[in-house]
Amino acid sequence: MSTALAMLAAVLLDRLFGEPRRAHPLVAFGRIASWIEKRMHAHQRARGVFAWLLAVLPCVLLLQTVQQCLPKWLAWCMAVIVLYLTLGLRSLGEHARPVAAALQGDDLDAARQAVGYMVSRDTAALNAQQVAAAATESVLENGNDAVFGALFWFAVLGAPGALLYRLANTLDAMWGYRTLRYERFGWAAARIDDVLNFLPARLTAFTYALGGRFESAVRCWHAQAPQWDSPNAGPVMAAGAGALGVRLGGAAPYHGVWEARPELGEGHPPDADAIYRALRLLHRGVIIWMAAALLLGLAMQGGAHA
């Protein structure tokens, strides 16, 4: 039951305060990772594995050691804070709503600028529909990366699990690219993130189905996800698009080149309302997870007293 209450407390903290504006620990970790990369980079998978271990394991082991030395109530408070710092639920809304508002105001330049903070594609080449699609895709995908994935690993391994997941996710965002520099060095970061996200991504896809158009979500998930390059983003975005009843995916510009991507979802083209509905779908999913965690905690507590 303490785990469920810790999850609820962390979500409420995120709701109230959002991400820290200054001195976010993940920003500090990113600097450490960059320092490690500069000194260890080589076109070798083994060097990438060692760099990943050097960046992540000391942080996770230190957290675990400190928690074991604290009284239970203080260790619980620390776990809540760690989970809160790994969540980005409110932050997603803070980034996505300005995009939707700009689209509603027919200010395409402002919408392009705002969505540029959410995605890595060339936003200057996007029309209004493509901007809406980019923001909606980002909300759906990051619903797994910045919310459900951290909650899952917290439920499984406690605060060290949530920290391990978030740091691995951060390294994937920094090193997990199929470029000349990172193809071999970043291989471990990409593969470890894939492994850690395998179960959370499918639970996220199922959560989107429960919170939206269930049959459409499941149909799109099974038919479209295998066509997507990422084994985890595919199920999440396909199910999310189906749950919303919108069409996502399709060609997108990266580094001046339009890259072909499979289509996701079904129904209407995305617009500003699709962004708002994606955020509401995400919040419904969090409510589902909190309710499930509390019910499971009560059931386990009842079983322990029986």
From TrEMBL:
Pfam families: CobD_Cbib. It is a multi-pass membrane protein. The chain crosses the membrane at residues 49-66, 146-168, 286-304. Pathway: Cofactor biosynthesis; adenosylcobalamin biosynthesis. It is found in: Cell membrane. Keywords: Cell membrane, Cobalamin biosynthesis, Membrane, Transmembrane, Transmembrane helix. Converts cobyric acid to cobinamide by the addition of aminopropanol on the F carboxylic group. Belongs to the CobD/CbiB family. This is Cobalamin biosynthesis protein CobD.
